Amino acid sequence: MKDVVDHPLERIVFFSDAVFAIAITLLVIEVRVPEVAHGAGDVEFWRALAGLVPNLVGFFVSFGVIGAFWMGHHRAFSHAARHSPRIVGWNLMLLGTIAFMPFLTAFMADYPGARVPASLYWGWMLLTSLLNLRVNTLATSPAMRSAETTGDDIRYVRGRGISTICASLVSLGIAQFEPFLGPLGMGTLPLWRQLFCRPRRAGAPGAPA
Amino acid sequence: MKDVVDHPLERIVFFSDAVFAIAITLLVIEVRVPEVAHGAGDVEFWRALAGLVPNLVGFFVSFGVIGAFWMGHHRAFSHAARHSPRIVGWNLMLLGTIAFMPFLTAFMADYPGARVPASLYWGWMLLTSLLNLRVNTLATSPAMRSAETTGDDIRYVRGRGISTICASLVSLGIAQFEPFLGPLGMGTLPLWRQLFCRPRRAGAPGAPA
Amino acid sequence: MKDVVDHPLERIVFFSDAVFAIAITLLVIEVRVPEVAHGAGDVEFWRALAGLVPNLVGFFVSFGVIGAFWMGHHRAFSHAARHSPRIVGWNLMLLGTIAFMPFLTAFMADYPGARVPASLYWGWMLLTSLLNLRVNTLATSPAMRSAETTGDDIRYVRGRGISTICASLVSLGIAQFEPFLGPLGMGTLPLWRQLFCRPRRAGAPGAPA
Amino acid sequence: MKDVVDHPLERIVFFSDAVFAIAITLLVIEVRVPEVAHGAGDVEFWRALAGLVPNLVGFFVSFGVIGAFWMGHHRAFSHAARHSPRIVGWNLMLLGTIAFMPFLTAFMADYPGARVPASLYWGWMLLTSLLNLRVNTLATSPAMRSAETTGDDIRYVRGRGISTICASLVSLGIAQFEPFLGPLGMGTLPLWRQLFCRPRRAGAPGAPA
Predict the structure, then answer these.
(1) Potential cystine with D40: which of B137, C92, C187, D44 (Cβ 3.0-4.6 Å)?
(2) Which residues of D lie closer than 8 Å to C, measured between beta carbons?
(3) Where along chain C do its domains lie?
(4) Residue (of A65, A74, A189) closest to A139 by Cα position
(5) For residue A45, is pLDDT > 50?
């Protein structure tokens, strides 16, 4: 019992994992069974599924996005060794933006090609990435990080956070002109990571305690 | 395995965390995608979203409220070191009130400005805060608290519990006259905490073992 | 990591807790916001809520029932120290019956007073209590129980399991005549526990290793 | 806190358990209460339930399938002792296919006997079993497995993975001719396990470190 109850940090990690897992699994509720006339042939079924494509794309894009935020959270908190009360509120706000994603996914999927839902979706992603950067920076801040955390670890976590912000901005920009193509912005993520996540040369100064 | 299975306290904490996390994430199910004519312009989308404002406010208020109850639970149980069978039933009742909140949130959001749903919502919050005080007081009672728990810790937990009761009462009162403005009552929370959560002067007697 | 990954027992306990927590929280989804004319007065709201009474009763009865099964599971597994592959399938069947309860709760609540839904609900409860007895008996069997488990512990777990079966039978019987009153059968639970959960006299022989 | 936060492997196991548990419990949401005239007799209720049979079969088949994938995951990760970043993405893809199953279950259940939904369901199961084999093979690969893992353990995990692929193929084949009978393919699982999960003779060479 010690392990959980004594360490408020662990309960936060646990609670966050649960919210990420529930939000990612609830996405499927918004993919509804299409209506097909009973006794219809295969062609009609495939046509009905074709009409579901935006919902399916929405499911998988949001699954990947929430999964990526979870992976970043996971990585940042693997460096944390102490609890700081300052992270609780920010983390709860981050979880709130994650928990809200199933709604925005459904909204965008139900009106494919419409600018407002797509802008909301990618704008919300931008807000989520800002909170994500804040939370992950706090988790690797001097108040929380373990003694083994290196300067490269911290730069990597920060670099990932900034990359997600940049990719969200690109998606939001694309969605203004071609709402369908918003997800392409996420494809620029590796470029930003290339730019922001490079470790310093070994032996470079500046590793924190 | 020891850690979990030997310690019924840990399984209660775990189960509670899961129920809090599920209830907080299920809130989004009650925010439904608005109906907009296909091919509609941006203005119609924004208008449809404006009609969703009560649901969005409901989502975020309840997210904050459930999050705050979770934080209080988290804080109180961080002082618990032993299991007491007496807490199981009370904790289950508290979780029942939390699990029921998505319904009351949707009810209030679907009839914005109506007195009955708002009164139910804030009355339920009052019931939840009473159970919350009971559970958190038990978690810091002599039967459960760790040896390191100080008198200030106990007063703080109790003070937070009483503050939430007071804020719920204010919200319930406001909702009788202006159901829209119920959430403002929650804004008085810092005042009550100022009043009830002040630590005693250092060196004051009364710290429990 | 050791603690979880090395011990298949812990993952089963964890997975079970999660299914119990999700099933208990999903019950609220079946309580739907009633339809009230916009601008209606308080009386109409109270009338609409009166129509929801069967759903509210269903929510709280099933919340209590799932909570009670969770508590029994919790208690039985607190005596387990080793994993046995034989428990996995039975435990999964028990979780299946628990996960199905939100449907039966909604069915009974939507047709209050109808015999078939009520019989299904209480018959299902009987099936659940049989699986519950099987799982909890396995968890306290020689293959799984810890060295500290006493004969009284085992008799208590078994006695609780048998009591739940008896109470389900009474509810099922009542529901044949007066479907409304099925929950009353659960009220006989303390009597059965009185009968089946009495510890042997201290010093009596038969405590297992 | 050490136990969780220091070990990214444990958070992956935890997150996976949560997604499995939520997906398995969400299946019930797709079983909807049938419409029966109020005041109808028992016969009409039984008739309405007969119409639900495909949904009930779907619930229990998918419950068993997701449960079996969870058990395989559970077994494979019980041999893992170290984290490998390569597993994260594959595991997330596996969880994505699991989380999507409630939709395919509902689709198949709403159009019983139709070839397209049944083919999608069993084709998806095939995809899931391929990812399952990949993830479980990685979990028992030299990069992740504990020193105590034997060659038989590894062959067993791999054999189970291959068996599930074979059974999915049989179900997919059957569904092309008689969509109703797809679940029978799963009945061949014990045969494949007989074939692929046999341990080598004791003392045979090839046990990995």
Answers:
(1) D44
(2) 3, 6-7, 9-10, 13-14, 17-18, 20-22, 24-29, 31, 33-34, 36, 38, 40, 42, 45-46, 49, 59-60, 63-64, 67, 70-71, 74-75, 77-78, 80-81
(3) 2-196
(4) A74
(5) yes
